[in-house]
Amino acid sequence: MSNQAPGVRIDGLTVVYKTPAGELPAVRGVTLTLEPGSITGIVGESGSGKSTLALSLLNAVQPPGRIAGGSVEIDGLGDVVGLRGEELRKARGKHIGYVFQAAQNSLNPLKTVGKQLLDLGRSHGVDDLRGLVREAKELLGRMGLDGARVLDSHQHELSGGMRQRVGIMLALVLNAHLVVLDEPTTALDMITQANILRIVREVHAERGLTTLVITHDIGVVAEVADRLAVMYGGRLVEQGPTREVLGAPRHPYTRGLIQAIPRLTGDIDEARALPGRPPTLVTVPKEGCVFRERCELRMDVCDTVDPEPVADGPRLVACHAVNSASASTTVATKEHA
Amino acid sequence: MTLIARRLAGHLARGFVMILVVATISFFIVNNIPGDPMAARYEKLVEGGMAPEAARQAVKVLYGFQPDGSLWQQYTDFMAGLFRLDLGVSVTRPGTPVLDVLTDAAKWTVLPVLAGTLLSFLVGIILGVYAAVKRSGKLGDALSISGSLLHGVPQYVLALLVVMIFSTLLGVLPADGSVDILYEPGWNAGYLGSLVEHALLPVLTYALSAYGGWILAMKSSVVTVLGDDFILAAELRGMKRSIVFRYIARNAILPLFTMLALSLGLLLGGAVFIEKIFNYPGLGWLLIGAVTERDYALMGGAFLLITVGTILANIVADLFYTVIDPRVRSGEEVS
């Protein structure tokens, strides 16, 4: 694989989980492109399917889940949905780095970080293990840690922020150029959050990565992402350049999310919580729009027809109300294109 | 190293106090069991025409203490004897020190029980991993059921079944005693072969009765570890299967070492039922005899031996953890 940031094209991806009520989709017909060298953020509530989507990039959806349809094309790797066995194992870690949520214990508690680094190197047939250790120390040093000390530590001797940086180091040390970060700042204090986000931005730029950040925190996306995709009930409801989406949200769900954030200045009552609760795997509507139960723009068509994402310039919105109102502009854009 | 030394010192001090406490308790319990073999012998001697004073002296010489001394005096004598490793003299084997009787019986218990425990541990943990990994398949079900079944059958029933199958029906292995008296004891093939032959069924019974506990414990431990984040993390980092397997195994086996150490500690108690059924002259067999024959000194000694074994096993288990689990080593809370 080249040393350049790969592009990723997720097309019509559907992931289902086996439940007593049959196979239910956690991710349904998601189409998303990660431009080479970009940082894309996916926001959504718990259960929106964002972590399942992230795991799909490594073809690592855990049973009882499985990828039921669609493709994930990664430059240099092809469609990872078709990868199996050793091919898939080698792609993980070497081409795609995955960074776990900080609160999760992503390290073997019985081994030092250094020994696990060597395990990683041996798994991927790295001949120059000394070089690998040097690279790891450099990365850790780059993130403000004492590399030698950290490599000699066990997980329980590291703080949450340190563990997260170790996670980033392990994702990058084999020179992967596609990095998926799942809730990278959850369960960290504010200062550590800011540090981790700065590191993500800087390392992304320095190493020339394509980065996907999964989070429930719009603040995180605003901080790092070039492009933003909003997930709800397993569907991508809106996506576009971060500034545009946050500045002028179109989908009623995105609007609701942004209105729910309390401001530093102004009245606390200005923040309005979205009414209702997010759907679960079982309660998500089988047909029609997934958001209609909580939507203030609900129309009759929403009960029966699932809105397709409609492009408007760099932005995509999947909403009958929004798209019928701006139908004329959409047509106009298409004619220009 | 200093940490381990400090821990060891603390354990030994606590263990010492515990041994004294248990020795005291077992002394008084044993002495409160109805029936008094010393008085019985004393009376027998008097009945046989011996003068009371001479009979008292004879009993004293035989057992090392006054049969009619106060309980408190007997207790202080017993405790003082402990420090000289003197556990008194067996009542039923006049003139034989309890310690000799115990060490003689121990060699018949330690090896077979050790062999049975280690065999069942090894088989149990290996099959436990399979039972966990294949838990949604037929193989996993079969393994789990075999574990529950063997775990649920009482030891004496298992022992009788083993005797029935291998000795009565098939007639391939002896089920009585520890060695054929035909052979001259020593390093000769006939004697050693007979030893092994006689040990096979008791060992098999130990192993079968312990196997269920190991496989079930290992299965649940592996299932827990399989759900841990770091296993998924290792897979998502593209770690080799063999390495991920080692991560799982090492983390899953950790809690089982406590159980192993404790069962090795209880090993000195022998397996009472098994030794009784196979007429195997180990510590369990000895203990049954001592209890039925009111051999106070021997009972007290056997109980003490079990106590010491358990306490030592606990100490060994704890020290072992400081070596194999870094979280214990650094004395921090496990997160």
From TrEMBL, chain A:
Q: Which domain of life is it from?
A: Bacteria
Domain ABC transporter, first and last residues per copy? 8-258
Q: Which CDD domains match?
A: ABC_NikE_OppD_transporters
Query: Is Lipid biosynthesis found in the keyword set?
Result: no
**What stretch or stretches form a coiled coil here?**
none
GO cellular component, alphabetical, reads: plasma membrane
Gene Ontology BP annotations: peptide transport
Compartment(s) of residence: Cell membrane
Q: Cell membrane: is it a keyword of this entry?
A: yes
What does the sequence similarity comment in the record state about its family?
Answer: Belongs to the ABC transporter superfamily.
Any idea what this protein is called? Peptide/nickel transport system ATP-binding protein
Write down the species.
Nonomuraea wenchangensis
From TrEMBL, chain B:
User: Which stretch is the leader sequence?
Assistant: none
Q: Where in the numbering of this chain does the ABC transmembrane type-1 domain appear?
A: 106-317
Gene Ontology BP, a term: transmembrane transport
User: Topology in the membrane?
Assistant: Multi-pass membrane protein
Keyword DNA-binding assigned:
no
One Pfam family in the UniProt entry: BPD_transp_1
- One annotated Gene Ontology cellular component of this protein: plasma membrane
Q: Which InterPro entries match?
A: MetI-like, MetI-like_sf
Similarity comment: family membership: Belongs to the binding-protein-dependent transport system permease family.
Task: Output this protein's name.
Answer: Peptide/nickel transport system permease protein
**Biological source species:** Nonomuraea wenchangensis
